[in-house]
Amino acid sequence: MEPKIIAEIASSHNGDMELAKKMIKAAARAGVDIVKFQSWQSKNVADSDPDKDRYRSLELSDEDHFVLKDECEKNGMEFLTTCYDAERIPFLKQLGLRKIKVSSTDLKHFNFLKKIRGNFEEVIVSAGMSAEEEILKAVEILKSGKFTIMHCVSIYPCPLEKANLRKLLWLKKITPSVGYSDHTQGFAAPVLAMAMGIDYLEKHFTLDRNLQQTSHRVGEGLAPITTHSIADEPDVFKAIIRWRKIYQTALGSSGLEIQPEEQLVREKYTGRLGKNS
């Protein structure tokens, strides 16, 4: 199966729906399959959290969800969002979503995961910061329906030497569908992950990595609320999609028969330099 490319806009729309629409259009031009946002409610953020006002300014309203979903579909892409609290589940179902994303922070919240499983046909879960036993428990909860576990390293940005793509091999042993949520920069890790047989590739998307952040915590190595500086621009996504086409071409078919061109070489050279039958 050709891996689906997810452009994660997340909250990098900066609370500006016109910017969000521009990003959706740019993702479509790059050839992306799915655009992902984030659905939280700032009322759940503790008043003591220094970023509460920022969360409030970046929160998507119900109307915003409908507008962005419509914009994605008009541009030939699927709308996807990360659900951050159980209260949001009924609305996201009302929005018509059959597929939902769960962040790395919630893989270990098993009751929440059970509610997600019971309400959506397909669940995609990132596994950053997750212990082996937590991932195995999540697989047990999700296995009654369609699901994907995304390998993820929750470092922002993630150096290539810490991408740990070998973990995909372990995930493929315990689940029928794996993906890669990438926090490296550039297209090297995504291309290598595609060659390892993933079903989804997710990567942060921006129009300009120099756009102003809305969190002061980026320099401390913590996950920012908006992610322009750790995201990649449309040209990187175009390169990934170009390599996806090359990968699909090189894969060929799964047939074991000798190809016609090989048959000609076989007939010409077999026995030519020695009678070894």
Automatic annotation (TrEMBL):
<dbReference type="InterPro" id="IPR013132">
    <property type="entry name" value="PseI/NeuA/B-like_N"/>
</dbReference>
<dbReference type="GO" id="GO:0047444">
    <property type="term" value="F:N-acylneuraminate-9-phosphate synthase activity"/>
</dbReference>
<protein>
    <recommendedName>
        <fullName>PseI/NeuA/B-like domain-containing protein</fullName>
    </recommendedName>
</protein>
<dbReference type="InterPro" id="IPR051690">
    <property type="entry name" value="PseI-like"/>
</dbReference>
<dbReference type="GO" id="GO:0016051">
    <property type="term" value="P:carbohydrate biosynthetic process"/>
</dbReference>
<dbReference type="Pfam" id="PF03102">
    <property type="entry name" value="NeuB"/>
</dbReference>
<feature type="domain" description="PseI/NeuA/B-like">
    <location>
        <begin position="23"/>
        <end position="218"/>
    </location>
</feature>
<dbReference type="InterPro" id="IPR013785">
    <property type="entry name" value="Aldolase_TIM"/>
</dbReference>
